[in-house]
Amino acid sequence: MSSGTYRIEKDSLGEIRVPDEAWYGIQTQRAVDNFPISGRRPDRDFVFAHVRIKRAAAVANRQAGWLEERIAAAIIDAADRILAGELLDQFVVDRFPAGAGTSHNMNSNEVIANLANVALGGKRGEYKPVHPNDHVNMGQSTNDTIPTAIRLTGLAKLPRLCAAVRAMADEYAAIAAREVDTVKSGRTHLQDAVPTTLGREFAAYAWTLRRCSDRLEAVRPLLCEIGLGGSAAGTGLNTAPGYAANAAAELARLTGDAICPAGDLAAQMQSMLDMQQLSSALRDLALELIRIANDMRLLASGPRTGLGEIVLPAVQPGSSIMPGKVNPVMFEMLNQVCFQVLGQDAAVAAMTQAGQLELNVMMPALGSALFDAMDWLTNALNAATERNLKGLRVDRERCGEFLHASVGLATLLNTRIGYAAAAEVAKASEHSGRPVREVVAERGLLSAEEFDALVLKAARDGRLD
């Protein structure tokens, strides 16, 4: 809430009013005025990542003797206050600002400079002795800090997302172990097929999700290669000797990740390929989750007129008009999130190819799309796992009813009596409505007990010998 009082700040375009209580300055205020687009402020992890870059730069510039001790210390202390959670409401630039992210870069520079100046006895908005450009931004450019911050943000979000994926996989694996002997009808083309077990079905979900997590983790080394130190166009203009390596080492210490300078600093401004690979892994996870969520909805359908082989916990009423109706709401939510993630990936792909020459100016929105996709998936996975997978119940009786009603069981006779004779058994079962086990017993092929044992062995082991 503004107090209604203002200070006057001046830049190369002239003077402008900035709220007295603001820790940001004139360039941030211009961005607030120019870009009232989404109403969304920067991602929290992105703010932290960018402030860590400012802190690491101060350390590297102090090491090189380019930044005097008291100014470096004031910048570092200001950054530490923000990283501790203070003044996050001062990062106010919309998610869709000027290209490349200059406005956000200056937002960080101004907040840190004002904090440092007040700590050193100065005033907000006067930028003495610490200047946003000359000191906080020393050796840097929007062009190398923003793509570096996007990479660091991805690295910060990855552990939470992968943990959520693995938690869902672990729950599927636990259900699979519990239902290892629950025989049911398999289905292909949404038609009756050979018998399987619910354990095998769910174990496959777990394996797939763990593979998705591995693919996400595989992007981590790519994100660790940063272009910080390339300055405006990858040339290293106005950077201190050893700055790129020293700043990367400090970021590695701050984050715990293996941050290092990229082999080509200019390339990390031109190319967003690393971020596109992350987005691709997110898209692939979303595609698998859509498929699995759809299976959950099918398996829980009914409960009387659908499959009803599993029962999902009831978390809220499902209808405003039909009493007692319960819907698979958590997996419906997961579907919706995943569809939105596919849209974010399409946006990232468009922005990845939209760079020209030395810079991709679409970075702010590209980063925002990535951050949203990662957060949405993390939250949706955790919610679906906690609220629906945990507590899922298997209706074993229902599974058995469908199993013995399936003419697909006749397939088990192929190696005993041949395909043609087995097809006759299937046809007889389908026309009479009698279970295959009864037809088999009636024709003297196997007793009902022997057939049941054959079904169990086929479902569990996949072999009949």
* Top CATH class of the largest domain: Mainly Alpha
The percent range for helix content is 55-70%
According to CATH, what is the topology of the largest domain? Fumarase C, Chain A, domain 2
Portion in beta strands? 5-15%
What order do the helices and strands follow?
EEHHHHHHEEHHEHEHHEHHEHHHHH
User: On the 0-100 scale, what is the average pLDDT?
Assistant: 93
Please identify which CATH superfamily of the largest domain we are dealing with: Fumarase/aspartase (Central domain)
Describe the secondary-structure layout:
Elements: E1 6-11, E2 14-19, H1 26-34, H2 44-63, H3 69-83, H4 102-119, H5 132-136, H6 142-178, E3 183-188, E4 191-197, H7 198-217, H8 220-223, E5 225-226, H9 243-255, E6 260-261, H10 267-270, H11 273-299, E7 310-311, H12 329-352, H13 363-389, E8 393-394, H14 396-405, H15 414-417, H16 419-432, H17 436-442, H18 448-461
Textual characterization of the structure:
Helix content is 58%, strand content 7%. With 465 residues, the protein is mainly α. It has three domains: 6-138, Fumarase/aspartase (N-terminal domain) (Fumarase C, Chain B, domain 1, Orthogonal Bundle), CATH 1.10.275; 153-230 and 265-393, Fumarase/aspartase (Central domain) (Fumarase C, Chain A, domain 2), CATH 1.20.200.10; 406-461, Ribonucleotide Reductase Protein R1, domain 1 (Orthogonal Bundle), CATH 1.10.40. The strands form four sheets. Strands 1-2 form a two-stranded antiparallel ribbon. It has a two-stranded antiparallel ribbon with strand order 3-4.
